[in-house]
Design a protein that fits this description.
By secondary structure, this protein is of the alpha+beta class. The chain folds into 2 domains: 60 residues, 3-Layer(aba) Sandwich (Ribosomal Protein L9, domain 1), CATH 3.40.5; 79 residues, Ribosomal Protein L9, domain 2 (Roll), CATH 3.10.430.100. 34% of the residues lie in helices and 30% in strands. Strand 8 and strand 9 form a beta hairpin.
């Protein structure tokens, strides 16, 4: 029986692939568990339409990520923190502090997107990598300044 996979299956293949399987496997496992559907002409047309929609959505997300990346590269955020005379911070600046500062400027970034090897513990300007969707990454300049009492 010829079926179309609705979702990825580790042994059979990726979603959207049409393949031949034994009738019993299709009727007793794949179709009842909504893993696959029969490969009729109507279902094949529906599948092609879904692929087109997915391609458009992916292209739009990629364009949005690139636009956000170019905006973030131009951005410098300033974070005030308490520091001693030697410019060493009493605490540290972590990913959440960077996310909060970016959200104040109108950017919505997930905490997992900020790549910090270790928290920032000195005042100064530091480049911080941010990974966006579709394998796009950018750098934001983070300026850590001494908070005046």
């Amino acid at each position: 029986m010829k079926v179309i996979l609705k979702q990825d299956h580790e042994k059979l293949g990726k979603a959207g692939e049409a393949l031949n399987v034994k009738d019993g496997f299709a009727m007793n496992y794949l179709i009842p568990n909504h893993i696959a559907m029969r490969a009729t002409d109507a279902n094949l047309r529906t599948l092609e339409e879904l692929k087109k929609q997915k391609a458009k959505k992916t292209a739009k997300e990629f364009a949005d990520s690139q636009a956000l990346s170019s905006e973030l590269e131009k951005t410098t955020i300033e974070i005030k923190a308490k520091a001693g005379d030697d410019d060493k911070l009493f605490g540290s600046v972590n990913a959440q502090n960077i996310i909060d500062a970016l959200s104040e400027k109108g950017f919505k970034i997930d905490k997992k997107s900020v790549v910090l090897e270790e928290p920032l513990k000195h005042t100064g300007i530091f480049p911080v990598n941010i990974k966006l969707n579709n394998n796009i990454s950018t750098t934001v300049q983070v300026s850590v300044v001494k908070e005046q009492p």
